[in-house]
Amino acid sequence: MWKYIANRFLWMIFVLVGTAIVIFTIMFFVPGDITQTLLGFDATEAEREVLRVSLGLDKPYIVQLMRYLYNSFIKLDFGTSYVYNVPVMRELLARIPRTLMLGTACILVNALIGIPLGMVAALNQNKWQDTLCMVLSLLFVSIPQFWLALQLVDIFAIRLNWLPAFGIGGIKYYILPVIAASMAGVASNARQTRSSMLEVVRADFIVTARAKGLKENQVVKKHMLPNALIPVVTGLGVGLGKSIAGSVVVETIFTIPGVGMYLMTGINSKDYPVVQGSVIVLAFFSAIVMLLVDIIYAMIDPRIKAQYAGRTRGMRK
Amino acid sequence: MNPVIEIKDLKKHFNVAAGKNHAVDGVSFKIQKGRTMGVVGESGCGKSTLGRTIIRLLEPTSGQILLGGEDVTFAKGKALIHAREKMQIIFQDPYSSLNPRFTVEDTIAEPLQISKKYGSKKEITDAVMELFHRVGIDDRFRSAYPHEMDGGRRQRVGIARAIALNPEFVMCDEPVSALDVSIQAQVINLLMDLQDEFGLTYMFVTHDLSVVKHISDDISVMYLGQLIETSPANELFRMPLHPYTKALLSAIPSIDIHNGMKQIMLKGELTSAINPHPGCRFAPRCPYAKEECHQPQKLYEAEKDHFVACCRIKEIG
Amino acid sequence: MNEKAFLSINNLTVEYTSNKKVIHAVNGVSLHLNHGETLGLVGETGAGKTTIAKSILRILPNPPARIKGGEIFLGGEDLMKKAEKEMLDIRGNKIAMIFQDPMTALNPLLTVGEQIAEVISIHEKNLTKDQAEKKAMEMLEMVGITAERYIEFPFQFSGGMKQRVVIAMALACNPQILLADEPTTALDVTIQAQVLQMIKKLQEKNGTAMLLITHDLGVVAETCENVAVIYAGEIIESGTREDLFDHPTHPYTCGLFDSLPKLTVETKRLSPISGMTPDPSDLPKGCKFHPRCKYATETCTAGEVPNVEVTPGHFCQCWKCVGYEQEGK
Amino acid sequence: MRKFRKAANNSYMAAMNSGHERSQSLFSQVAGRLKENRGAMAGLIIIILILIASFLGPLFCTYGYNEMNMSQRFMAPCLKHLFGTDGYGRDIFVRILYGGRYSLLLGLSGALVSLLLGIVLGLVDGYIGGAFDTVFMRIMDIWSAIPGTLLSIIISTVLGSGFGNTIIALAIGSVPLTVRLLRGQILSVRKEEYLEAAASINASATRIMFKHILPNVISPVIVSTTMNVGAIITAAAALSYLGLGIQPPNPEWGAMLSAGKTYATIYPWLVLFPGCAIAIIVLCVNLFGDGLRDAIDPKMKN
Predict the structure, then answer these.
(1) What is the pLDDT of residue B114?
(2) Domain limits at D220?
(3) What is the CATH number of the domain that holds D20?
């Protein structure tokens, strides 16, 4: 088991370095001269050259890349914001908890609402509960997140004045953003749980369980659900990846000073260290989630666990 | 005259996680024109792999395959194309061996189109119709898709495809084991009729001993990648020599309720051919195993035309 | 018909509805199983064998399946009339089932031991968890698997071993009736021999009656005392093993025997039954077998075919036998 | 062997025994089943109507999509302006009609580009296999480690706005999904014996790829591409909303939302109509995709 986790962990680091290379390369080849943005149009060529040298932009691509990787992964230094002149890492550390809070809340809402809804739908296949769940989830999958966010603010914050519209503070500030960010995930989770349940319903071992004289609710709880949840776990992981990306939109709308909003600020002001740093952090989150998904997988599914536990007795090729 | 197929010390090894799988390990035999060699053994004994290696669907590891005296073991390009036109295969699974997106006519016409031996579309259509007739499929199935037909008809389509190019040698990989008894008999009759008509040479791989006895002239018994006994069919059933063959024959449930054979029960199950010991591979399950069985066993002629790879047949009696 | 039979199926009819078509899977089947007896139910793919077994336990998926009519008596009580709650007590306890495909019949996420212990603790509620576990281990040992393998998962077992686990599970509560649905079809001959021998031994030891469903006449010959042949959802011939194997009477039964290559007799050419099994959503009128039957006459194409007792206990559903019966008398 | 005994058991095969005079191709079977699905047909019809309306509609309207009228700013929906007017006095109904082009074209072409890229990459990968497959999948892992929308945002930043650039940005975000799906399908088809059969009759590698593998793996990919259209429409709107992608004054729905959000509380129609438009079109695409999936794989339904 530990071997498995270690294996996945190394893999995660590899993915992160890869991501950093990709992002660095994309930003490197962005057309336009950054010194122009920073110094304005009336700066002389000499002034620009000085800035380039001080930022290390005069070096060839590969040197810059290596230095960037060294700084980011060994020294844990993402550089300094061009615009605000603040170390990106310091700024990120302050912002990470907010994004993390939003993301975790989202995944909890996804799982706690989406999975039961999907189960209810599957167990009442073709009845009104099923139809209702599926119509609602189709609707929520289709509504764009940012629009839902705007409408929520309009109704609950401005018209009814129940909840704050933007900014950060207590739990209250997170309610609307979490709803906006998780509705689509809840819906797609419910759909996935349903179809995965329906697949397991037909499995032979379910017939075996019934033939044993097991009560129907036990059949569902002990035999159907665990098997049906395996693909759903993957779905949750993918969903979280999406909601991390979605955090950019949601944080922008609710002005939550998290990593996503930082990224947008960076993009708008061509502040490359900020963009690169934020993207790596967001990719780090989604890699961590994938790692967790893999570990949960191994915990549920004995076939994966055994692969790494070195137990081969009785196994066939 | 050269035998149609002769293999000498043929080996096919696969690299697997646990080591090297000796799926086919030094098999030699020859089949004369118009005759049928039955190859029997339990699942995992390497009989299908052997067949696929002979007709060059799998790359042999070492050894020799002679097709009408010509070495095709490592034939490439034109030589391989030429060889494959003379060697065809009929598959076990009539559900997976037909492309679900091809109509029956497409499937049977494909080899004809590829061979470029036919000038016009008309000629191909005529040839296909002739094949339809030959294998006993009604014309109205021309444009049917595989999923619209039952197993027996599908298997007939597979047979038509295999004989389309007038091959000399046909490898039949369990062609009737997926069919119901009454349909199975129809297909066996068809195969035997085709053999008489075109002078086909068959290698007939199966686990069903009553079928193999009915259709074969000679029978080879395989155990974990090795040939352990080979002899004319009647001789083998009259007087099996190898302890495994004896157990195998005695295990067939007989429909003769008055003089059934006494069953020899084997202990344990087929192990695997991954990193095998040099000795007799059947020894761990053999009721007669002794010290000397852990030496490598060679196939030798114990009776006229009756070869066996067991050092203790005298004592066993 | 048969008063002392322990399990008695009378006139069972089951239909499936799919894509607006009605599939007549089982059409008025009657079967009788005595204490300790082994009855072989022989038929080809789609003849309705598995449907009968699942009907007995009432575990057919509904929809699409629907039991249209018939009675199933277990020791004098009609299972069809029982409440679902009462059935729970019968499934796995009084009647147990072995399934065809051991590869998919076990839950991949539970250890084999847990799955055996589960059925024990359902039906023997006075046992503690440890006792149930201990009994599950005994069951494993009984089917020839060491008790240490209790904690292993199905994927760590070979097909033959899995089937042993399934059998251990079925026999764990010492059922009075065992429904074995093609228990060895998925296995190699040498393993099949081991498993059949084991089932028979355990059956004899516990006095269990068994309904053995198979398509393999050889397996029937070696295991069963009585045999019923099913074709298109109807029992067309039944009797003792000797009746069927020595004097097959129905043209279909004879056809089956002629289709088989024999090990002992030399035959140059097999004589298969012509044609295909009929479409169960569009069964022929009259005798279901008549389109494939070489003896078919005008009479066979319409009306109900009489079920004739050709010799005591040997029934055959064929017009051909009506004359036979009169000659016999 | 066991599996198809069972497959045959579900009496589906037996029902086919009687033999059909006329055979239906898989395509016409799917089309037939699709026609019976009311939701999917409704979705398809609405999409077609929107498509027609967005291209022909503006021709019949009294206002141009960019026609400003400062005397009629922020007018509430009325008979003259069905959906009201915006801050420049532009008619929102006309703008939404016109904006349908962007959403539909972006969605369709984005999904199509990602499908084509996915097929090329997936087939090349499935074809070469071996070590290449390992390396390739690692690249795909990295590619998909960055969430799709995020990638689109970054690519869009780099490439700048514009229709073509936006399509590329959107497509790149969704390629890994297609590749993975296709690869999984190819792997499962690779075991099928008809591929061996094709090899044994000397079918060339390209023939096997295009005649035997591709037609058998494409259906789930087509279904996922359909669903992708919906996701890409939403993503395109999100990009515009963030000030990337299609930019104002083009009447892209996301851009309209972005422009209207400041006044949303006072003049709710500024965001209500564009938002509903996006939701309706995505809903229709999803309805159609759901129906298509059920039609292609009818087993899933019952």
Answers:
(1) 92
(2) 2-300
(3) 1.10.3720.10
> Nearest chain A Cα to B15, which residue?
A317
D236 touches chain A (CB under 8 A): no
Cβ of A302 within 8 Å of Cβ of C108? The answer is yes
Structure tokens at A189: 């989770």
CA B64 to chain centre: 18
Sheet holding C7-18, edge to edge: C21-33, C7-18, C65-74, C77-78
B79 touches chain D (CB under 8 A): no
Task: Find the farthest-apart pair of alpha carbons in chain B and give their distance in angstroms, rounded.
Answer: 68
Question: Residue B151: pLDDT band by 50, 70, 90 thresholds?
Answer: confident
Beta strands in B195-303 (DSSP E): 201-206, 218-223, 226-232, 300-303
Beta strands in chain B (DSSP E): 5-16, 19-31, 36-40, 62-67, 70-71, 87-90, 169-173, 201-206, 218-223, 226-232, 300-303, 306-308
Q: Name the strand (E) or helix (H) holding C42.
A: strand C38-42
Calculate mean pLDDT across residues D224-237: 87
Residue D150 near residue D172 (C-beta atoms within 8 A): no
| Contact between chains at B272 and A312 (C-beta distance less than 8 A) | no
**Predicted complex ipTM exceeds 0.90:** no
Between the two ends of chain B, the Cα-to-Cα distance in Å is 36
Contacts of C258 (CB under 8 A, 6+ apart): B185, C270, C271, C272, C273
Which chain D residues have a beta carbon less than 8 Å from that of C278?
Answer: 14, 17
Q: How far is A4 from chain D (nearest CA, A)?
A: 18
Overall size of chain D counted in residues: 302
Which residue has 């292993």 as its token pair?
C152
Mean pLDDT of the B247-256 span = 86
Q: How far apart are CA D125 and CA D115, in angstroms?
A: 15
For residue B3, give every residue at least 6 positions away whose Cβ sits within 8 Å of its Cβ, in sequence order, or none. B30, B31, B32, B33, B66
Distance from CA of A308 to the nearest CA of B (A): 13
Contact: B265, C193; criterion CB under 8 Å = yes
The answer to whether residue D73 neighbours chain B at the CB level (below 8 Å) is: no
Q: Identify the CATH assignment for A94-316 out of 3.40.640.10, 3.30.43.10, 1.10.3720.10, 3.90.1150.10.
A: 1.10.3720.10
* Chains in contact with C via at least 3 Cβ–Cβ pairs below 8 Å: A, B, D
- Asked if B269 and C161 come within 8 Å (Cβ–Cβ), the reply is yes
Quote the pLDDT of residue D13.
Answer: 37
Q: What tokens does A151 get?
A: 């409408």
Count of structural domains, chain D: 1
Q: For B43-100, give the DSSP string.
A: TTSSHHHHHHHHTTSS--SEEEEEETTEE-TT--HHHHHHHHHHEEEE-S-TTTSS-T
Give per-residue pLDDT as tens, C161-184: 899 899 999 989 989 999 999 988
Q: Which residue among A213, A223, A301 places its CB closest to the CB of C92?
A: A213
In this prediction, residue C255 has a pLDDT band, given cuts at 50, 70 and 90, of very high
Nearest chain D CA: its distance from B207 CA (Å): 12
Q: Which two tokens stand for residue D239?
A: 């990009």
Q: Where are the domains of chain B?
A: 5-316
Least CB–CB distance from C192: residue in B184, B251, B255: B251
- Report the gap between the CA of B11 and the closest CA in chain C (Å): 24
Chains that touch D (3 or more CB pairs under 8 A): A, B, C
CATH of domain B5-316: 3.40.50.300
* Segment B283-306 mean pLDDT: 88
The whole-angstrom separation of Cα C289 and Cα C276 is 10
